[in-house]
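Hi team, as promised in this morning's meeting, here are the two structures we talked about. I've kept the exact order from the run log so nobody has to guess. The first one is mostly here for context; it's the second one we should focus on when we meet again. Sequence first, then the predicted structure tokens.
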Amino acid sequence: MSFKYSSEPVSRRHPPETFKITIRKARDIDMEDLFQFLHAKGKMTNNCRMAIMAMNIIINHKISTEHPIIRNSFYTSQEAKSLSGGIEAWQGYYQTARPTRGKMMINIDVSTTAFYEGGPLIRMIAKILGLRSLNDLCKELSDKDRQKVEKRIKNLKISDNHSPENKQKFKIRKLTQTSASHTMVDVDSSMTDVKTFFQNKYNKHLLYPFLPCVVVRKNEYLPIEVCDVIPGQRYMEKDTNLANEMTNFVRQNPNIHADKIKAGLNILNYKENEYLKQFGMEISNDMAVVNARILPTPTIQYHQSSRENRIQPNGGSWNLRNKKVINGATLGSWSVLVFSNSSDQAIKLFVRELIITCQDTGMNITDREPLICRENPIGNTEESLKKAWLKAGNKAKAQPQLILCILPNTGSNLYAEIKRVGDTVIGVATQCIQNIHMINPKKQYCANVCLKMNVKLGGMNSFLIPEHIQFVTDEPTILMGADITHSSPGYSKGPSYAALCGSMDAKASRYAASIRVQPGRTEIITDLANMVKELLKAFYQTCGRKPKKILFYRKGVSESQFMKVLECELTAIKDACQNLEANYKPTITFVVVQKRQHTRFFPIQGADRTGNCFPGTVVDMNITHPHPLEFDFYLLSHAGLHGTSRPTHYHVLYDQNGFDANKLQVLSYNLCHTSVRCTRAVSLVPPVYYAHLAAARARLHSSECSKSGEITFGVVKQELQKVMYFI
């Protein structure tokens, strides 16, 4: 490989450009509308939005000149945590101005994200390759390793260090395919290699001439060891291992979390901020103290034959001991498909323990010795599943109901392919088990698997007693949850996946899903009217009656999109009803559910064992929306497991069902005890939680045609659409 290499400094070949900047006054910031809005005397106007935007610019300006800032968060390397592969976690702080009842407040929270480690590029490459030190970097890279390194460092910003008086900044385009000692360059019509060039030109002896060079511009490159990574560059790629490392770093119990926020206030130092003073803004350094209530815990009903057929959970969780599911499914035709290298003895032990648990929980397992099939985890997964399906059917002389898949401890691609084939090609329920959980089967784990299997086979696990779900039991009522899942960051051309889930009975225990593929990054569910029609028809076919009430929970909407989503999607819901029948006009309540928000609660008196607020804690004053009619509340429905619990924000945008805050709070909290996946109160109401799962599953239903390169999307088989296949 050879390049034309100029001996002239880069600065001479690329002189700095001159820009002319003109600043014009656009408009005055009118604060009067905002004051009226804060005191519930006016609506949210463009003047209000402009005033809040101006406040955010003012409070963020000083800190943005001192630290890297990403949207409303700034980050500092003071407490950086080194992760694998040359990546490190930086702790930072989120801050934004928010309107509340009677005043503006600042929402501050701890925020963490991943950055590339600054410093020598050679050190980062050693970490990418998993080497213990630079001493282990002693030979030429294989093609596989070179591609691995190139993928990680492409587009990374670097500076050179071989000429201190004339340092330059670059962006990495790629790596050369040959080493520095074998990459030839044309210097003043004479060919030489990069190693020799740097020795002659800069008196720089390369210690790693066997490594490739970095291409920074067309026909311009640098040896890896003369490059330094510029600090403060965010790492954006999706990486499961790094995500797990980040999660462990981020988890902080409430006391530590609160102390971190106070430390952030010291960094922000509002009292000494000259920009705030110039605009006449004053911000307190104290956390707001708000009143909260703890909602009563509902009662959960199991099968009447259970030794404990009713349970009132304590602390947000319970177990299946002495309890049987309401309607246990019968499993008579199934097989076990093993992708791990576990022994037959370990597999049979797990299957036996799982069967015992299922039987004790009320399921009927008629085939207690399912066939065990072994397949290669990197082989043809579709063929493997078809073989297991055929063997199960031939043995039972009946339609196969389930394939239990045992996976190696990692392998999201294998999981995705299993679900694609099971859901859209064969039409059989699949239950995946990680090998690590199979080796030492625990009773609670088997119980959770049993709950999933039962609903995938058409069974029902439990329900709330009628008085705790009265809004649903009084009249035919459908609960709906909607969510959109987008493609991974950096894949802007990828589609988005929308899901709508609806309850199918008066107990709000069974749900059906409708999914769609739509243009990427679209926040509105484009085919919502037809999706609503599908679920209303399914409800009628199941219950024999049309819903008189619709409670619609919508996840994944930012505040700036509230009105647009309400306008488009409420119209779609009403159109769906009128298309079914001209005079069909059920009453509708439209609630936005936000999980990814930065409000945190730290109990002053009384806490659970993790230091968090008790399950059922609700806050509906002080920090909520200025207008009581557009009521919102924060509900912490689940028990803390690790770190600081995140409350869910519920915001009612439209209500024809006459809810007051307390009725909707209690109903939403009670519904959080009906998740079919576990014996815990969950953090999101199940309709929208299921929609989130269904949208994520829809992403797995895509496949790429090897000939055309086009993406095709499979349709869920009819036999699975009647059950909760997405659980």
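And here is the second protein, the one for discussion:
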Amino acid sequence: MIKKITIILLVFCVSCTYAQNIYYFSSSAGNDSNAGNEASPFQTISKLNSLSLAAGDKILFKRGDTFIGQIVVSQSGANGSPIIYDSYGTGDLPVLSASDGPNGNPDPLSTIRIIGKQYLEFHNLKIENGRFDTTGTDDDQSFGIYIQSFKTLPGSGNFEDAVLFNYFRFSNLVVQNIYSVNSSGTAFNNIRTTGIYFLDAFVNDVIIEDCYFTDIERCGIWLRKYVSDAIIRNNKFIDLGGSGTIISGSKRVLYEKNMMRFTGSNSDPRMTGRGSGMWVFGSDDVVAQYNSSQHARGAGDSSGMHVDYGNTNILFQYNYSEDSAGGFCETLGANDNIIWRYNISVNDGTIDRSGKNKLLWVSDYAYVPTKSTNVFIYNNTIYQGKDYKNVIGDSEISLKAASLNFINNIIYLEPAAKLGEKAYLFDVNTPNFSKNIMYGGSIKLDFKNLDATKIIQSPLLLAPGRRHYSGYKLVTGSPALGAALSFTEPSFPLAGLGIFSAITSDATKDIYGNPVNLSGATNIGADNGSGEPSIPTVVTYEAESGIIVGGSEINCSNGSGGKAVNVGSAGQTLTFNTVNVSSTDLYLINVFYANPLKSTLKVTVNGGDTESVILPYSDAYCYQSGVPTSFPIIKTLNAGDNTIMFEQGIIDKMEVVSVNEATLSTEFERFLDKTEAYLEKTIIPSSETLRLIINKEMSSQNVEITIFDINGSLIIRKNLDSKNMSLEANQFGTGMKILVAKVGAQLIVKKFIVY
């Protein structure tokens, strides 16, 4: 009877409502002796760590404030009543940083530490951890959020045979400035520095969404070991030293609608300088779809996305990959059932920064070299032409597998491009090549001859060479229309189940949302539409026809009309006031520029918020006989005349063309969150410049900037033009500083660190 009563109580308590406490924290207006409510908030992370939290509790940090110290999550929530960490108030997200600058106080390994806890949520926070001062160990590591369990793998070798920790939610986080004390002597594979890091986590049910990762030594998200049923979606990974995401030792992961740009970056000397946008290793049952990866760099694995070794049941579909150093479809050894379908690859493969330059790449690389089985590459569209440095493609082919199926793909090369001529390896036990279009340039004859049913005609793409997936639709009369091979597709065993409830085993649509049924008549390539009736109208605006403020018209022998406009300095602008379109819609704005270094272009449309767009480098300046290159920006324009303003670039011309809404959402083309004001960097070396960025609505006013030391002593006060709010950091001294900016009636307070 006692056992029965106990069981009844346990069942009842699954649906218990837990008492909820809400604790408010403000570093600027709080005190640890306060009551901890909104009117009387606590102040420090030390106080937070001393609280005995319970299921259902909320911890709220005041927006605009900075909190220094490591948060040690020492309590779990409960099913239906998680412990929630969030923000309150208005203004910038609150900053949580374990590091307080180079002051001799040891900087913790992570800003948020979670060991063996569960039912946790984190929302609307900015997380940093630029470590400077040693703890005596792990100087080559740093983390924003660190999750570990200290469990050991069961004898079965299956982590899911252990009792797992459940329910983790992360949303609307900005994770940046994550750097170790010093990793200069550490091998690349031993550098773990990551924004959100799971190590021996033994966790289930994870969602990471709508987060922004930038300025990190290596990785944005790393499921390093033992995570199941994870969804990673709608995130932006911009300018990271390594990969956007690594999925290793995990099961059942859905990775969708993420944007990855400039992974493997070296924009900060502390960055590792190598990394694919995303990759999977030693994992089972992963789907990656509707993702965009551009400008991955590095000497090792630096593809748009890739499949490392030891995986089973991996499905990559509806993704856009462009200008990656590694190439397309990188698949290493000891894998089984790897599916690449309905993806678009544009100018992947380069030797830039020692890139692998293997456009088509399947290998046997594994701990023990082992050829992969059941690799399927079908209905993809692959384009090769000129890259951003105006270098024509000359990529390698390297294919080594037990069984490889290459079916219904389009390979389109510009006339001077080459594929497989530079280097060619083919070692496949059971090849199956059918109904591929191989057109243009110079394609290795041995490779072409693998397909007895190949088509050597132009596929008639809508706008080949466009740096956007909209350019790779088929037009009326294409030989790809209705010409695909009908075949039985490989199975994705978990389709329709759990987190894959919306995933189908067979392809049912293409990257543009058109229906697909490969058991019947379909198209070759990634577009299964009926054919576009005509090429859309492209309207060109020469830079010299715009309104130039502060900059100048310059000669550019290789530019359109032999002219360009230099508005490269802060505050200089080029404005087009009469950009006329027929209907309110999304438009592709191709900006042709001649900046030989990776740079930031500011764009303002119709007086709205100014967005900063990172541009890849072109081959040279105009005066060095540089040839302008183009970069696509997606904007909504209104019917009638529109105003488009550019700052900080050398602009040749602008093209405007309508982009029909497609399944691969153009929202993932956008870069920065729209905030009223932000510091370009919050941790900067003394040799650099401190810059405050404000939005367009505030930019017509003068700004008074005051810098204080952390002890409150005045360092400098200046009145500046809102278009040029830059100060040399070497005049402040090192350590933590406080910036106060008066913009009209608004007061902006920011903390930053100089080292």
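Starting points for discussion:
The two ends are 68 Å apart (CA to CA).
Residues 296-535 form one domain.
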